[in-house]
Design goal:
Length: 172
């Protein structure tokens, strides 16, 4: 009797899974008893625009336009840092160190969070020919990462480099 109940119970579960999988076929698939969710957005009219993926950087998928964004950032910001996080909330120790050093000079810092867009991160690497982050540009020139900025700070070279950047009054 227990075997009959067990068999009936398992058949009931299987029929519920089959019913559920046909009802959700556009967004999920049952595989070995586990539900797998699709990462694609359905094209039906029930999908609200708020739930469709968006691009944080208006690239249109083009590497050329991302390169233009990087060039423009570097040209328009006397101090530009591509970092993990933002200056107010760095998400790695090296980015935090670079921001703290730059903040000693009270200069305006342009920044982009490379964690938000993998394509932008790759475009920056390609632009500078440098593989790691943070990446710091001063007056259009690629300087390097946090270790280089820290060394320049210790040697007095960073103060010289930033001397004509507006707002520069080194904190004591």
């Amino acid at each position: 009797m227990a075997a009959a109940l067990s068999s009936r119970f398992l058949k009931g579960i299987a029929s519920l899974q089959a019913l559920r999988s046909t009802r959700l076929a556009s967004v999920s698939v049952y595989q070995n008893g586990m539900m797998r969710y699709s990462t694609t957005v359905p094209s039906d009219s029930d999908t609200h625009d708020d739930f469709k993926p968006t691009q944080k950087v208006p690239s249109g998928g083009s590497t050329d336009s991302l390169k233009d964004i990087v060039e423009n950032d570097v040209k328009e910001n006397p101090v530009m840092i591509y970092m993990k996080g933002i200056p107010e909330a760095p998400q790695c120790g090296f980015s935090s160190l670079a921001v703290r050093v730059l903040q000693q000079y009270n200069v305006p810092i342009g920044a982009r969070n490379i964690l938000e867009d993998q394509d932008l991160k790759n475009a920056v690497k390609s632009f500078s020919h440098w593989p790691t982050f943070p990446q710091i540009f001063i007056k259009g020139e690629f300087i390097g990462g946090s270790d280089i900025i820290l060394n320049m700070h210790k040697e007095g070279e960073l103060e010289e480099k930033l001397k004509d950047v507006s707002g520069n009054q080194k904190s004591q």
